[in-house]
Amino acid sequence: MNRTTENRSPQAIPNQGILNLARSVLKISRLPAAPTFDWTSQAAKALAPLNQGTSTGVVVLQRDKNTNKYTVESSGVHISQAAQDSIESGQARCLIERISSTPIDLTDENKDTGYIGSISRLFPQWVASKASLPWASPHPTQSLAAYAPMSNTTSKDPNTALALLVFASHDQPSIPPIDSASLAAVLAVIADKASTAIQPDRSGSVLWLTQREQAILDLLIDGNSVREIAESIARSPHTVHDHVKNLHRKLGASSRGQLITRALGHHQSTEKLRLLTPAIDPQLFHYSNNSAQNQNAQLKGISELKLTAPSAARQAVPLNPTTNAN
Length: 326
Description:
This protein has 14 helices and 7 strands.
């Protein structure tokens, strides 16, 4: 044994949970800075390193100011290997999008700061409808959900929100897939990334890029001219030019340089950086601190956990008293 090995202390070995969190944050940082057609699918895959045994979902929601109801703008899923035999990704997305037909019971404060709790608390009617069970864990109290508002440049009262779903592992369904603090850190990063990439226009609609527009944008970023792109994709320069005009419109760019800048997420913002600090349902701490007791409770059924009504989200406590970071 050499001296280097002898002097290595156990504290020098990174915690696996921290490594998983770092991998997920790295993947989130590489998400597109434009509203690509597969943005939510890529985002769901970016959550996968948190726990390889879990399935994840990412949903962009749009709130109607008049009815206070949500509609799904886009959804993406990552299905764990253990669940791949039970459902396909297309079917899973359809089930996730049923979330829009159920209310989200949060206080105005939690809608502004973000919220983390069990899926059964945030989306109780969705869980009761059994829409989540064919591909997720049959233990919704251990599956986590996170809600985050998405700021944008057109409104100080954002009506676009992000929902993250992290389902309990099929192998260990009675254990939460990740700790709530890690999910809070991921939620803050991915909400910031989504707020840059997905900005509704003045009418409140998100102008998603088509697959062709995304491919052309990637070629523009690589420094290709319109003529070179036309030759590359076997289309006329006129057709490519039309796609480029659509890209300018959807990304709000008035020049080619500004288009590239916005596509890379480097455009300047006049607003201060806002670090999301979501409220965490206190019941999650009960689960993490009493895993053995919780496993016994699972054997008795969800009803024996004595969960309160969804309005218990009002009792959520802030992860951090500071809500803004400059």
